[in-house]
Write a structure and sequence with these properties.
Elements lengths: L6 E4 L1 H18 L6 E6 L3 H8 L7 E8 L12 E4 L9 E9 L3 H11 L5 E10 L11 E6 L4 E2 L15 E3 L1
Parallel strand pairs: 2-3, 2-5, 5-6, 6-7
Antiparallel strand pairs: 1-9, 3-4, 8-9
Helix pairs in contact: 1-2
């Protein structure tokens, strides 16, 4: 599919504005703390990069990688860890940074894995949430945008590893 056939969904200026608002909330909530931001690869790397540059509290960064899609538009329903954390989260304030929450399956899996290591707290920052698809039983503490059930690409989101480099978010 050509880039010209993609429909603009969220403009770069909208993303930038919302990320600054999320960072302001995090800066307020974590003043006098040193949280660990855990980005979920590959999709969250651009969102996390822009978010972390707006954070003015002391913090640490790590990444983990899960898989539930492969090259498909539909989740396989099976989540597996591809890259483990390199940090120790025991007794620490953790902020998980995710690009999109649709079914909630990956996030539920990740939360259960991280909580096994006994962090002091765990909060979730997600750029997008498919509000009509997810059957979640956890709170999204810092949400960029609630969206309808559309398959979106750009700004780190992909289809078969393509389109991540687009500056905005587009409907495929």
């Amino acid at each position: 599919m050509e880039k010209t056939k993609l429909q603009v969904f969220i403009k770069p200026s909208q993303l930038s504005r919302r990320i600054k608002q999320l960072a302001a909330d995090i800066n307020h909530d974590y003043r006098n703390k040193i949280p660990i931001f855990i980005g979920v690869l590959n999709g969250a790397f651009i969102f996390m990069s822009d978010l972390i540059r707006e954070i003015n509290v002391k913090c640490e960064v790590d990444f983990l990688k899960l898989s539930s899609y492969g090259d498909s538009k539909i989740s396989s329903g099976e989540v597996k860890t591809i890259k483990e954390l390199n940090c120790d989260v025991k007794g620490r304030d953790v902020i998980i940074v995710e690009d999109i929450i649709d079914s909630g399956l990956s996030m539920k899996y990740m939360l259960s894995q991280i909580k096994k290591h006994k962090p002091k707290s765990v909060r979730l920052a997600a750029l997008l949430h498919k509000k009509d698809v997810a059957k979640i039983d956890f709170k999204i503490d810092y949400l960029g945008f609630a969206i309808d059930n559309k398959f979106v690409v750009g700004y780190g989101l992909d289809f078969a590893q393509r389109y991540r480099n687009l500056k905005g978010i587009y409907v495929l």
